[in-house]
TrEMBL record:
Keywords: Glycosidase, Hydrolase, Lipid metabolism, Signal, Sphingolipid metabolism. Signal peptide: none annotated. Residues 46-125, 128-213 form the Glycosyl hydrolase family 30 TIM-barrel domain. It catalyses: a beta-D-glucosyl-(1<->1')-N-acylsphing-4-enine + H2O = an N-acylsphing-4-enine + D-glucose. This is Glucosylceramidase. The keyword NADP does not apply. Its EC number is 3.2.1.45. The keyword Hydrolase applies. It holds the Pfam family Glyco_hydro_30. It comes from the Eukaryota. Residues 1-24 are annotated as: Disordered. GO terms for biological process: glucosylceramide catabolic process. One of its GO terms (cellular component) is membrane.
Amino acid sequence: YQSGRDGARLRKSTLHFGKQPEGDSRVGAEQLHVKVNQDVKHQEVFGFGGAFTDSTGINIRKAGDKLGDQILRDYFSKDGIEYSVGRIPIGGSDFSTHPYELDDGGEDKTLSKFNLTSEDLEDKVSVYLEAYKAHNITHWGITVQNEPMASQSWNSMRYTAETTRDFVAKTLGPELEASGWGPDKLKLMVLDHNLDLVKEWVRVIFADKTAAK
């Protein structure tokens, strides 16, 4: 699907496999064999979607009501590409105008200054979940940290498999469960990062029975 300045709006195009043109030395379609075995199932695809970062909201709002509504329909409606999931950062990200948290201004153990409108957490992620729930937005899952092994210039925290294991087992997991966001209500995922790290992280984290819950 393509959109462009020429007026195209999610214009559908189809790629057809054909025979390799005579004289073309590149790998041709007759050398490519794709076999789909529908009887063997592995992971289920939950859905496709995008991130609701600050820049997304800012630019859609700047587009105006008419175009903003059209953008959302193009992404999420049956007349568009039918996105079915969305991702929301907890606080600022690399697509924010500046680094910020959802409770800026120094130590605030009671989270009295917590709010979701600060475009301007330690063990209380449940406060964030409840705040969105009050707006009829329910999360089906969260990750501990986006790209935990990356050292970023914006607000983020570097985690290893060991520190993630300890944080989940001793702090985040118990807090979520005590607040009614246990495994039956919310999927807590680790390693929101590259595939080559999966085996080591799974080995370390799932060896701990408390973290593995």
